[in-house]
Design goal:
Radius of gyration: 38 Å
Largest sheet: 12 strands, mixed
Strand content: 5-15%
Helix content: 40-55%
Amino acid sequence: MRHNDRAASAPWIRTRLRTAPGAATALAVLVLVTAFLAAAFPRAVDAYETKGLRHDILTADAGRSTLEVARPQPGLELPQAQRDAEARSPELARIGSGLLKALPAPLRADTSSVAYGVRTSKPAVANEPWLPRPEAVPPQLSYVAQSGLKEHATLASGAWPTTPREVTSDSREVQGAVTEETAAELKVKAGATITLLTAAQEPITVTITGIVAPRDPRDSYWSADPLLRTPSLVLDTASPFPVHYWTGTVLLAEDSGPALLSTAAEPVLFWRIPPDPAGLTGPDDARLTSVIASLESGPGLLKVREIAGDTAVFATGLGHIVEANARMRDAISPVIAVAALGIGSVAAVVLLMTGALIAGRRKAELALMRSRGGSLRGIGGRLLAETAVTVLPASALGLLLATLAVGEARWWPGALAAAGVGLLVCVALPLRTTLQHIRPTLHGAREDMVSARPSRRRTVAELTLLVLAVGAVAALRRRGTSTEGGTDLLVSAAPVLVALIAALVLVRLYPLPLRLATRPVARLRGAIGFLSLARAGRSSAGGALPLLALLLALATAAFGGSVIAGIGDARDDAALASVGADARISGASERATLPDGLVRTVRDLDGVRGAAPVRVEYSVNMPESVAGDGGADGDDAGTSTGTGSGGSADDAKVAALVGVDPASYAELARATGLPAFPAARLKATGSSAPLPEGAKAGPDRVLPAIASPAVAARLGKEPRAIETLSGDFEVQVVGTVPRVASVSPTDFLVVNSAALEQKAPTTLLLTGAPDPGKLRAAVEGSGKEYAVQLRSEERARYVNTPMQAGAERIYLAAVAAGAGYALLAVLLSLLQTAPERKTLLARLRTMGLTTGQGRKLLAFEATPQALLAAGGGLFTGWATIVLLSPGIDLVPLALAGVAGSDTSPVLLRTDLWSLALPAAGVVALAAAVAGGQAWWASRRGSITELRAGDSR
């Protein structure tokens, strides 16, 4: 009996697939694309988190990322032979091998750069007369006997340091080498000798046998301690005067460690283990943080001490790197979750719309089966089998394509997502179809909104959803959207909640204005306007499900577009704040001035639209704050925004004095988009008239000044005396601006440079697009002490890290997917009523309707629904951005990881194009589809549409 059932079910599935191959193929393609996107999203997140973690570890300074185990020299109570043996390579290598094996997962070592040896932790003074003494202070040198020198360096001159005889604590002669940079700065040559004193003040002669060059200077072997490679001129903190001395490192032969045990330079045994991030993944960061904490002060440290000795300590900055990476990930995750939940909801709604479309097309067929005795279980089982044959392979293929497209990620999140897509379609389509046939339906009943009134149960369900959504949005607004380093589902669901509220309200209110509009239109000549409005008000194509899909897609696309636009704007603003204009020329020191010839030469270059010479003097002491004075007049030029310039009066104890030419500087501010600069208020007249060249200003000379808000609050409205390198004078604040082009956001005071004693500019700000090569050539012709900064090059510094680039790609994909699903929702909603419109056109053509009138009728009928969706999408997108913007900071996506960048909060702002373009696309597509359908219907005859007894 079971065999017969199986034999009977196979022809049904095969027959159905052969009968409607187009519908089956379209469903399979839709499921394939949706499963691919669903599986690719978690894999893409895993991939960019993994790449971001590896990138941060690889690009971090080796001194921070390297794992170092160190312990003091062997105890003096031990026999000398034992102390010497513990400082030799065999014993150090044995301990190093044990440490490598004991590293807990997921930590892995880069064995090619592992180094161990003996080093001095306290520099020793080198009194050789031939060593450089820049300020009469002798250099202080460190000594290290480190493994692997020949593998990580090449011999530039001389010979490799060796140990002709066994070195012990009593040895007084050892060989060493220095790098080329150390040799160049400290004037060391092969064959030179340096004396290192023992604790008993006995000399150890260190003979420099060779000069070596690092094979890879950036390798952790050389970068873990930069003094191994490059000497440094440091400030002597013990001296009462600011004097400097050289410090560097001498590389001893590998087995020369025992000789250092007799010195007073506090020798230390060490093992440096650089991490290998190749095997790390993004989800490993929590385990990695825990493992590092255990090695620093936990069970891991006890195991390290079992291998390296009871006094061993473990040190690394890798934990801080991993924590910084986790903070960036936690800051980015809430933004990504908004896109994921929005697009996921749109995809689910579109899949449900597809099921509704298929159910509507097969309603008559299944009603006939039901009337002839078919059970709901039997019909549902056949539909489930029919759907599974198409959907499950498409879901599996989507998962396979996602796995091939996005590699190196966990498999199970993507598998669960793809399986969820397949399960949703397999369950929703049969369930949606069979539920329509619980009770037999009358043949030929109308399905538009004239007779199909919403039931009480549906009304109650919609009201319940509406109340819950409104309550969630109100709670979200009251609580705030800050996630404090985590993903909050309520925050991420904001687009869904807003779209749900808008869809439920609009779908109820939508028919009312259309029905009211039909009354005056009915009095006009022609039936096209009346028919289109009447049908638009009655059509079932504008239901809650299609409208919800459109609103969700448009809101998600608008949010994603605003995020991408906000990232670009933040980077542009940061580059402008750093450079001040399109190009900047300044001296190597703050006091270096620009010659007039350089200013004239640069101003005449091709591509330079404007030049503003500026004199900048930093760290000018401000007078004591004026109590109870409100600063400048209320008609200030701007208001305080951002950090620094918006501080309190007590914070503005020092400020930057900026001398400008008001006219050229105001033009510069307009060209670069900075706040309007009130040039007229700095007009040099009366007591502030320009000084003749070389003239001295009196202390009672009063100059009008434009100040930052904090400086204006400190100085008050009355003239205040200040002392500067440009002259001593009084200033009176006549206006404020929040920022200026010549200095980064800070406290500043802008005056007319013509009224200063020292007028020579220190900075030249340029607008336009000069050729970088010609600009640098012109500057170099005047002297190499001048630096050139370009805004375009500064903007290019904000290169995406893998995590930032991955998040941006996800948002671009979200915008594209949102637009695609929005267009698909429009198509599905129009296809659902396509047979009805074809029949309408055929009947109206028999009454004299022309082809052009038919096209207008369908276009006018689709336009109100498209405008409703577009307007609702604009509102939903705007409301989502307004709701979420207080808790979203785009700095982690835009500026994180760039040294010196402005890291003040960058809030999400509404991007007009991201709101308008998708909405306009919906209207254009609806009109195009309606027109195309009318054109196609006009090419076909009316016979098939007007068959006797057809329910349409």
